[in-house]
TrEMBL record:
Role, per record: Catalyzes the condensation of isopentenyl diphosphate (IPP) with allylic pyrophosphates generating different type of terpenoids.
NCBIfam families in the record: PRK14830.1 (NF011405), PRK14831.1 (NF011406), uppS (TIGR00055)
Domain of life of the source: Bacteria
Pfam families attached to this UniProt entry: Prenyltransf
Active site as annotated: 29, 77
Cofactor binding note from Swiss-Prot or TrEMBL: Binds 2 magnesium ions per subunit.
Lineage, uppermost ranks: Bacteria, Bacillati, Cyanobacteriota, Cyanophyceae, Oscillatoriophycideae
Positions contributing to Mg(2+) binding: 29, 216
GO biological processes: polyprenol biosynthetic process
Residues noted as binding substrate in the record, renumbered to the chain: 30-34, 42, 46, 74-76, 78, 80, 197, 203-205
Protein name in the entry: Isoprenyl transferase
Obligatory cofactor(s): Mg(2+)
Length: 250
């Protein structure tokens, strides 16, 4: 049996493989509440959240969704208690180091987006290594937004473009969507078709503001560590029932 056939077999029969989103973005919310409900420290929710993310990545691969982007740490998350921030930074580093071999084996191409220069040096090293080692992988594109803020991303693109204009390298009339996008952290990535947010909040929280102009938004009350394949199936099913008009009349 070819890999492709086994992938099709695993996709739930009610889902249309030709109408799957090409790119799914996730806001992994509710880790703290998941832990609190169990009388555990918040960090245990994040720890458990890693397993949910790993399973979603594998599920995207199995079912034929070619790109997944996860919001791991926002520019606003620095405002959390120091121990939690420290735990998260160490967790990212540990997971990256631990999973790199498996990502290579599964042909995952990992990319980090955000203001990476302000992250701890040791984490930056793991990020560089992960991106470099997996750059030629042609399986699923896995993007992790870390120290990411949509407004900041747009601002830094504006500044870079303004500098080019100032240096006479660019005329303001040449600024179009394509050029603008080439200055975003996500340059070269397709726009998410579907945004999934867990734990019931109906907000974008500064995530991929430009890129998600036409994303379908799916919100579930499920807390992130409990988000599994059944939940993903429900999200994809809801997505396939949406009519995507992109502002036009169909
Ligand atoms: C939001 O839940 C979750 C986060 C800010 C962290 C998410 C990070 C992970 C799941 C780890 C991912 C790991 C890698 C390597 C990419 P919350 O703490 O805001 O939950 P609450 O709203 O219930 O308090």
């Amino acid at each position: 049996m070819t890999v492709k056939q086994s992938k099709l077999q695993e996709l739930p029969v009610d889902l249309d493989q030709n109408r799957l989103p090409h790119h799914v973005a996730v806001i992994m919310d509710g880790n703290g509440r998941w832990a609190k409900k169990r009388g555990l420290p918040r960090i245990m929710g994040h720890q458990q959240g890693v397993d949910a993310l790993k399973d979603l990545l594998r599920c995207c691969k199995d079912w034929g969704v070619p790109a997944l982007t996860a919001y791991a740490f926002s520019t606003e998350n620095w405002g959390r208690p120091l121990e939690e921030v420290d735990f998260l930074m160490t967790l990212f580093e540990r997971v990256l180091r631990r999973e790199l071999q498996e990502m290579m084996a599964e042909n995952v191409k990992i990319r980090f987006v955000g203001n990476l220069e302000s992250l701890p040096q040791s984490l930056q090293l793991e990020i560089d290594r992960g991106m470099k080692d997996t750059q030629n992988n042609r399986g699923i594109q896995f993007t992790v937004a870390t120290n990411y803020g949509g407004r900041q991303e747009i601002l830094q693109a504006c500044k870079a473009i303004a500098a080019h204009v100032h240096q006479g390298l660019l005329h303001p009339d040449d600024i179009n969507e394509e050029l603008f996008e080439s200055h975003l952290y996500t340059a070269g990535l397709s726009h998410p078709d579907l945004l999934i947010r867990t734990s019931g909040e109906m907000r974008l929280s500064n995530f991929l503001l430009w890129q998600m102009a036409y994303a379908e938004i799916y919100v579930t009350d499920t807390l992130w560590p409990d988000f599994d394949r059944t939940q993903f199936h429900l999200a994809l099913s809801a997505y396939q029932h949406r009519e995507r008009r992109f502002g036009k009349v169909m």
